[in-house]
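Reviewer comment 2.1 asked that we show a complete input and output for one of the modelled complexes. We chose the nickel (II) ion case, as it is the one discussed in the main text.
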Amino acid sequence: MSILNIDVYPAPVLKRKTEKILNIDDGIRRLAEDMLETMYKAPGVGLAAPQVGQALSLVVADPGEKDKPTPLILINPEITAYEGRTGITEGCLSVPGYTAEVVRHQKIIVRAYTLDEKEIELTLEDFPAIVLQHELDHLQGILFIDRISRLKRSIYDRKFRKGTLDQS
Ligand code: NI
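Response of the prediction step:
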């Protein structure tokens, strides 16, 4: 396994809509494992394939408790139902130095394939639901800074141009 390079805004791959994966082969398995390792190392709670330069419909996540690793690998994931509203301050490994609150659904149902080609359906609420919505946005070329108010976005863009985003 290896640690992959994480692309950061404004890398063009982050704006691209991804392709569905048609064959779950060794290349996809290796990519998924490398993405998990890269996510844990960062550290982060989710990572989507475009963030490592691959315009493919694949996300990894571990939105559970810190001392109990429960890695998720989702291929061609889709949200099939959603309800409620919630929101927390989000950040992104591809948008360093910036966080902002984003409005999300409180509960979602996600349908996806696993690495062994099983179709699964997950019902997620609160933090895990938010993480998965953030990651699935990446598959559509959407970053969390695309979901904040125009005013906040203009402040972000100005700081980005000036190079004055927090480096923490
Ligand atoms: Ni992200």
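The longest helix spans residues 26-41. We note this here for comparison with the apo prediction described in Section 3.2.
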